[in-house]
Amino acid sequence: MCNFLYFVLNIIAKKVSLVMVYVHLVWVTKKRIPYLRSKELRKNTWFHILEYAKSKHIKIDHINGYRDHCHCLVQLKSNQNLQSIVHLLKGESSHWINEQKVLDELFQWQAGFYAASVSPSKLKFVRKYIQNQERHHQSGSLIDELDNHFPDVKSGV
């Protein structure tokens, strides 16, 4: 702890900002329609979101999801806000999916999103949780999953 405190005080003394804010984001498809049925489409979509985020200086630590939703672990910078980040990522990804013409219908994300701050001590848990989306959903829905893994949040997604 002393090393960390020394590090923080040194940063402050240099008049540099140190922001360590991690947020777990989840958003769902319009009407919870499982548009992202194929693993290939999900993989390509997550990759596209990652690349787009980099171009907008958005730090996505982890991304994954399932047929009807996306999970992102984002590290916020001091000049970023959640609403703008989610708006950019959802807007660009839905535009990209539709541009690929891989679906017979118009792809859309549902309005709104879930966001929860993640303490540094819980980062490993959240990363693993996001990585294992396929396995989590073999036994239940997103609502079941949130109730089981995040009991403090009752199904408002």
- The first-to-last residue Cα distance is 37 Å
Which series of helices and strands comes N to C? Answer: HEHEEHEHHH
Residue share in helix: 40-55%
Describe the largest sheet: 4 strands, antiparallel
- Low-pLDDT windows of residues: none
Strand content: 15-25%
Shape: elongated
Overall pLDDT, averaged? 87
Pick out its properties.
single chain, 157 residues, 4 strands
Q: What's this entry about, in short?
A:
This protein is of the alpha+beta class and 157 residues long. The chain has six helices and four strands.
What does this structure look like?
- The chain has 157 residues and is α+β, with helices and mostly antiparallel strands.
- Helices cover 44% and strands 18% of the residues.
- It contains six helices and four strands.
- A four-stranded antiparallel sheet has the order 2-3-1-4, sandwiched between helices.
- Helix 2 crosses helix 3.
- The longest helix is centred in the middle third of the chain and has 19 residues.
- It starts with a helix and ends in an 8-residue tail after the last helix.
- The mean pLDDT is 87.
